Amino acid sequence: MIDRRTLLKTATLAAPLVLAGRAFAAPQAGGARLLVVFLRGAYDAANIIAPTGSDFYATARPTLALKKPDPANPDAALPLDADWSLHPALKDSILPLWQKKQIAFVPFAGTDDMSRSHFETQDTIELGQPTGGTRNYQSGFMARLAGALGNDRPIAFTDQMPLIFRGGSQAIPNVALNGMGKPAIDPRQARLIETMYKGQQLGGSDLGGSVAQGFRVRDTVYKSIAEEMTAANRGAVSPKGFELSARRIGRLMRDQFNLAFVDVGGWDTHVNQGGAQGYLAGRIGELGRGLAGFADEIGPDAWANTIVLVVSEFGRTFRENGDKGTDHGHGSVYWVMGGGVAGGRIAGPQVKIAADTLNQGRDLPVLTDYRALAGGLLARHYGLDARRLALVFPGTAPVDLRLV
Questions:
Q1: How far is CA 323 from CA 42, 106, 116, 317, in A?
Q2: pTM for this structure?
Q3: Residue 201: pLDDT above 80?
Q4: Which residues of 106-128 are buried (b: 16+ CB within 10 A; e: fewer)?
């Protein structure tokens, strides 16, 4: 049966998004938009934007490494440049954006947090504060960005308010776009439960009638949401996970919001990660289709002034482990997407990948600090001066990779 919390979450999805008694107006035409996509769990960047130009890559990953580019092999990596290749699961989604020069990849990116703890490093990224000092958990960097911009319309596409948007002077709405899945109890089970309670009373109330009504409400809500999801996908089969969320986010950011955050889980691949096929390939394929769907749904005018920044808390060990997976690492690869992005290139400082260049002999080093990278993007995207940029990322000088 549907409970009050689920009904409230569903109502939030179905109703116009209103906060503090006022509806959010559409952004001005040409207004800058930013979406931060957080891959929680630390995705294995080295098998998604793979250094196929390095012989050490194949040696370090005897079962996981992607094959070098080969047009005759559908499971081979897709060439980006002489050193880097793209996972074949992204052929129809992300590769076209690369070819349009609307996406760039920044390898060796991350934080100086060496804890290799999901929670601690996720907090590090969301707070955007210098490591080593006292943390203010009521001051996320996107909340500070909202304050620095002043005229933005922020939203978090999350079940609860994320750390990244905590603090600041304005209330920020959050909504879980995937909060309503297929009912866990099928019609046959529902009928059995209704029969079990039929004729029973509780405080003068007919339990059988209440249970039946509860299931009818649940089914009505699910049908309504499922129909909306199908329409959002233009008549295709009902999309799942991030694919669905991204198209809905695209519509909302086109029409109502211009500063947003969403997190996507399922990237902690310690066991049976897979290479060209398998678990990670499935997840990255969904992500790629979702991001491509977002770009399509937001429309060319808004896309031209949108930046999508895809981050993860850290990378994974460069060598595969004994369980055909990868463990917690350090450096990662960040994605920068948008219609106005100077993409089609691997950006930022790089080092030849070899056993002696790995961080602590085990994972990719960090050569581009995520705060410096984000600061450089924000400075160019929003025209933030040094004073306002320092409010967003205190103690960090921005790095301009000229991506916008």
A1: 17, 28, 19, 13
A2: 0.79
A3: no
A4: bbbbbbebeebebeebbbbbbbb
